[in-house]
């Protein structure tokens, strides 16, 4: 761990929370592509030595996308926690950070749908308040230029129809504590920090890299797909016609970088990093593409075709779960948390994002163009259960269908 003086070369000093998360880790190579940028990462750990070890593991996992020798000179890790006062830093380190940082990207969050409200608030709301306290001090010190809060398009909760980027509190209810607490964090940023140069980014359902398929987060969309691949589920709630807004993580990170550092007038604006109404896929298309892929990879499996059922039928199946065996019981417990994504008809407007991108727009590829990369990586890592392959984050070799 380096000393509290935190010496940096002239240029941008970016403080990043959530650096070991799905979005944060993918931002690192993009941020370091700018030669005048150095990074300060907040990483949890029981000791400085543990944090340095986690930093080395993180950089090694990104070895294929950055120059390791350069990265080690331009990336610094601080042991801390967003849920603690002063982010868990000593007063000296906190003051040094506030006096040197030029940009803050707050990406840390809990994305678990099943957290108790108190647990989710501690991380997503109180953590955001602590990061914004640092932003305020850095703003007063005179070096801070911008602070980005990574939110989610699903602060829209149970709303239907077209969700605009300026929308926030529309009296909506929420399907889980993740949506509710990310909404509450946005409310805090907007209402309590009007004088700070904040920017809010709202991604939709984030999947792996569109080119390599690499992901560290096998959640949300991956859960029903895993059960489909293993022949565990035969029914899903919702409708095949339900729009599904899916974006690859490389698009999300490039868009954050482009708008946050490249757009002159993005202060106090919110951007949907989403596929949008024209490029959104559907639940049915995702499942059909996936089922066809899994069947070709394992022709002998004879995977069942899925049927869509209502919420009432889902409740009945949960009642019958004790008679369905442990794998299907576990699947039903998890799928009920994702039922809203499979049944709500909604689209996310992307007007601000498109306008800010201008001629340099970074388009979202259609899901059909990159789904194979995602699914190949899932099989190669056994849905993240092969820890060695998952940690390495390597581009996987081509997968061929199994022989008959």
Description of the molecule:
The chain has 404 residues and is an alpha/beta fold. It has 15 helices and 15 strands. It has helices at 22-32, 48-61, 68-74, 91-100, 117-141, 177-192, 222-229, 249-262, 276-279, 283-297, 311-320, 326-343, 351-357, 367-380, 387-392; strands at 12-17, 37-43, 75-79, 103-106, 146-150, 161-163, 198-203, 205-207, 235-237, 243-244, 246-248, 269-273, 281-282, 307-309, 346-348. The strands form five sheets. The protein has a seven-stranded parallel β-sheet, sandwiched between helices. The chain has a two-stranded parallel sheet with strand order 6-15. Helix 1 crosses helix 8 (249-262), helix 10 crosses helix 14 (367-380) and helix 11 packs antiparallel against helix 12. The longest helix is centred in the first third of the chain and has 25 residues, at 117-141. The radius of gyration is 21 Å and the shape is globular. The N and C termini lie far apart (55 Å).
